[in-house]
Amino acid sequence: MSHIELIVNVEPKEQGSDVLIAELSENGFESFVENDTGFSAYISKDIFDESVVKELFSNYASVFNVHFTIKTIEQQNWNKEWESSFSPIEVDGKCIIRAPFHEAQKGFVYDIIIEPKMSFGTGHHNTTQLMIQKLMKLDVPGKSLLDMGCGTGVLAILAAMMKATAVTAIDTDEWSYENTIENINKNTVSHVDVYKGDVKLLAGKIFHIILANINKNVLLADMAEYHRALEKGGDLILSGFFETDISELQKQAEKLGMRLAESAVSSQWAMLHFIKNK
């Protein structure tokens, strides 16, 4: 099967690449390789729609300077190419996230193996690291936990390693759903249930902790359901948005009856920790 290579040059490069890669991943693009001026994105030729890309980029015309070219290429092992640049990630000296082809390292409380299959949540992104840092500070043992928008399943796996009694991982993306199951098996953690779907799957469910590392628009749209599915006094941890979005998300959460317990920022990306009022 032929693929389309979308070669994107964007300024500012770091922030622009993060945002546009996240947007393209929600529109069928399955893998990404960053470079000095932006990134290349790959999608099957039979589902590629140039008009979708043009519209997406036009939405950010006032924020980023974006130029792109399109190239048709034959089937290749994109995952193998990306694996060659995948390096282990260490978080706060306690957690290491590595691929199966990396040597195990001593001295870490949590050693997580992630098969790099282009799903989000390998640990390289600031938002994933913010979520991991916060999760390691929470009282997790004996709690039920939801990883919403699980990506690779790294947060669900860490929660299971931290002795959460019941972990649920949900993602709308088929690739992420399958990758999460694969990574759970590689880490031999139990009591993690994985589902493909959206916030509708939360009907009738209650959790002590909810993690959601998703873009701002989804968080705003689904926050009421997160609130409903959260135990009184429970923790809601959000990331996947910029520091400039904090006030809007905080206002929505407080309107629902949650209070802000902590916030953190890394390279303009933010994390918010809310507690549901008793």
Essential attributes:
Alpha-Beta Plaits; single chain; 278 residues; 4-stranded antiparallel β-sheet; 14 strands; globular; Rossmann fold; alpha/beta; 8 helices
Structure notes:
The chain has helices at 13-25, 50-58, 78-83, 126-135, 154-161, 174-186, 216-228, 246-256; strands at 3-11, 31-34, 38-44, 65-73, 89-91, 95-98, 110-113, 144-148, 166-171, 192-196, 207-213, 230-242, 258-266, 269-276. The strands form 3 sheets. The chain has a 7-stranded mixed β-sheet, sandwiched between helices. A 4-stranded antiparallel β-sheet has the order 2-3-1-4. Strands 5-6-7 form a 3-stranded mixed β-sheet, with helices on one face. The chain is an alpha/beta fold and 278 residues long. A hairpin with a 3-residue loop joins strand 2 and strand 3 (38-44). It contains 8 helices and 14 strands. The longest helix is centred in the N-terminal third of the chain and has 13 residues, at 13-25. The chain has 2 domains: 3-81, Alpha-Beta Plaits (2-Layer Sandwich); 120-276, Rossmann fold (3-Layer(aba) Sandwich). The N and C termini lie far apart (55 Å). The mean pLDDT is 89.
